[in-house]
Specification:
With 260 residues, the protein is α/β, with parallel strands linked by helices. It has seven helices and five strands. The chain has a five-stranded parallel beta sheet, with helices on both faces. Strand 1, helix 2 and strand 2 form a beta-alpha-beta unit. Helix 2 crosses helix 7 and helix 4 crosses helix 5. The longest helix is centred in the first third of the chain and has 20 residues. The termini are far apart.
Length: 260
């Protein structure tokens, strides 16, 4: 009886001490913390939360998603839903993803009204919003290459944004190139927009101020951008997402930016 009691006490002491006696490699480790790096390097976990994949709304800049080599800022046409619309905004992203891979692309729509009244006012507030998004993009991701794009009234937004790049001051403390270099002046003084790509542009044939490269797509029979420019809406004006122009534009953007 005394022997059994002694054996039971010994076993109890051994079991109690066993977790502390195991070597460190055998213990259960606490999960490693996950970090999100806004500049797109290192870390794991939730860094890609909010990255655009599909649909009529994209907010990669305002959601501060990880930096990508390309940042496309797109303005939709009149009365289109979301901030990308559906005619060419989403198809352009799909074509770019097919050409380059989703990991190369940040996508952002311009949240302007896109109302019929805006047509008479060059896109209204859209130009200022697009220029502001370009500034935010370069502040968050100094190495990204920015493409301005728009469809229909969104083309007018691109044209109106161009001059405002020259009047948009760089925020205090922003460093675009190196922590040792001072940054002064306007957005246009410190960054070159890689290109502008416009579909069904009411101002087709006019340059975009502060943007060296411009690619225009005007479908045959589109009277918003073609000749005669009657601004009558035809089926051609809604054809850009299915007539091959999205794929061609993706190839153009890859070529002019050097991203592959």
């Amino acid at each position: 009886m005394l022997y059994q009691a002694t054996l039971l006490l010994a076993l109890t002491a051994t079991i109690t001490a066993l977790p502390n006696a195991l070597p460190p490699t055998k213990r259960s480790a606490a999960p490693a913390p996950q970090y999100s790096f806004p500049w797109g390097g290192g870390g794991g976990g939730g860094g890609s939360t909010g990255t655009y994949t599909t649909g009529n709304t994209a907010n990669d800049i305002t959601n501060k998603t990880p930096c990508k080599p390309l940042t496309i800022i797109f303005a939709r046409g009149t009365n289109e839903r979301g901030n990308l619309g559906s005619v060419i905004g989403p198809p352009l992203y799909t074509a770019l993803k097919t050409k380059l891979g989703a990991e190369k692309i940040a996508y952002q729509g311009v949240p302007y009204p896109a109302s019929p009244a805006g047509n008479a006012n060059g896109g209204g507030t859209g130009g200022a919003l697009m220029a502001s998004l370009a500034q935010q993009a370069i502040q968050q991701c100094p190495s990204t290459k920015i493409i301005l794009s728009g469809y229909s009234q969104g083309g007018s937004v691109v044209h109106r944004a161009g001059p405002q790049l020259g009047s948009t001051p760089i925020a205090a403390g922003t460093c675009l190139l190196s922590p040792s270099l001072p940054v002064t002046g306007t957005l246009a003084d410190n960054i070159s927009i890689a290109t502008a790509v416009i579909f069904g542009d009411p101002s087709n044939g006019s340059p975009v101020t502060n943007v060296a490269n411009l690619k225009e797509y005007c479908a045959q029979g589109d009277n918003v951008c073609g000749t005669p420019r009657t601004f009558a809406i035809t089926a051609a004006h809604a054809s850009y997402g299915r007539n091959g122009d999205a794929g061609d534009a993706a190839g153009y953007i890859a070529g002019v930016t050097g991203v592959s």
